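Quick start: what a row looks like.
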Amino acid sequence: MRRVRVFVWIVVSSLGLTVGCDRKVAGGSTDGAEVFKAACASCHGERGKPPQAMADQLGVRDLTGAEFRARRTKELVHGQVTRGSANGRMPGFQGALTDAQIDAVTAYVLTMEP
């Protein structure tokens, strides 16, 4: 469990350093695919399917999987991106992403298919 916490801390810290350098994730873009690539792909994979190690070690959700697609809603995805996951494994991006970027990446995630 300690390894998982350390890994999550490293991922969150890396995002913080990236944001701290230019203060704009994806250069401030509101293109959902660009925001996803910059802020989400390191855990969820380039196309929403996480690397197996991320899924096994951290429980990172497959955004293209049937289980998630069956229950995904705009409200669910927007809340996860904004506040993070209830179990604390996924950080919230409120403050790191603008409201427009959160809206854009939410819309992008809703289009993901296997």
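That is the whole record. Residues 2-110 form a domain with the Cytochrome Bc1 Complex; Chain D, domain 2 fold (CATH 1.10.760.10). Residues 2-22 form the longest helix (21 residues).
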